[in-house]
Amino acid sequence: MTTHDPVPGELPSFRLDGRLAVITGASQGIGRTFAEAYARVGAEIVLAGRNTERLGEVRRSIESAGGRAHTIAADLGTMDGIRSLERGVSKIIEASKRQLILVNSAGFGFTKAALDVTGQDWDHVLNVHAKATFFCSQFMARKMIDRKYGKIINLSSTWSVSTDLGKSMYGIAKAGVSYMTAALSTEWAPFGVRVNAIAPTTTLTENTSQIMRENPDRAKRLHDRIVMGRFAQPSDLVGAALFLASPASDFVTGHTLFVDGGWHAGG
User: Were both Cys, which of 107, 126, 155, 236 would link to 232 (CB 3.0–4.6 Å)?
Assistant: First the structure.
């Protein structure tokens, strides 16, 4: 029996004590919500994102609640930014004996007619959503393999399996994230690294809420596809994020968990 095998009769834990969680896109929205939730259940947090000021706000929020957090400013749309994050995270990991979690939350919404998508659009969307997810997972997996345990959680989307006007480019990127999740889980499971994804429906972050207000017809069309009758809030995703990061999901890998109010099931 390994140190991570379940004890018969023992209830699973959703605590993250003794964990170090690296969260990209942590300055706002879903990433910030996950970071604050993970800190509340015992994790030490590394906050990664482009906006230094906002990262500082999240760090202070976590510390004021009794948690511990670090900030690393990096643009994950470039390999230089990814390598900069790797260097900063590596220093923190070397000084810690904690087990490791990575949440690949960096991203942005993108809606544009396929006939209007440019090569620059293609590169930008895939660089941030797919390339950054892959290479952040790669460098964190090496650290996790050294410790014989780790959790990687990617952000996919309902658009990975459904279509709508203007969503071809975004859907391609998110379908790639879900495929990547399964493929990496197959390679890394023998080394104790679990890789899963969360696929939310439209989630009312600050940015998304503004887009919905500016496009009421589109907002109604999307709202009507969610069978539970409302858009998601970032807090709706926290339960799934805690489950996939915690020991409670130690026998789950390669899975994309739809947290979408019935969007996917309802077709």
Answer: 236
Selection from 24, 189, 20 nearest residue 105 by Cα: 24
Q: Are 255 and 261 in contact (CB under 8 A)?
A: no
Using DSSP, state whether 162 is helix, strand or coil.
Answer: coil
Sheet holding 99-104, edge to edge: 69-73, 44-49, 19-24, 99-104, 150-155, 193-200, 256-259
Q: Can you give the length of the chain in residues? A: 267
**What are the DSSP E strand ranges found in 75-204?**
99-104, 150-155, 193-200
Name the DSSP class of 105: -
- Name 149's Cβ contacts closer than 8 Å, sequence gap at least 6: 4, 99, 100, 192, 193
pLDDT of residue 2: 42
Q: What does residue 110 show for φ and ψ, rounded to 5 degrees?
A: -150, 120
3-class SS of residue 163: coil
Rounded Cα distance, 203 and 220, in Å: 14
CATH numbers and ranges of domains, the chain = 19-259 (3.40.50.720)
> Taking a C-beta distance cutoff of 8 angstroms, is the pair 250, 194 a contact?
yes
Average pLDDT along the chain, 267 residues, taken 10 residues at a time: 64 95 97 98 98 98 98 97 98 97 97 98 98 98 98 98 96 98 98 98 93 92 95 98 98 98 90
Three-class DSSP category at 228: coil
Nearest to 180 by CA among 133, 126, 123: 133
Distance separating alpha carbons of residues 71 and 50, to the nearest angstrom? 10
- Name the residues annotated as catalytic: 170
Q: Is the pTM of this model over 0.70?
A: yes
Check residue 4 and give its pLDDT: 61
DSSP classification of residue 77: T
Q: What was the pLDDT predicted at 266?
A: 86
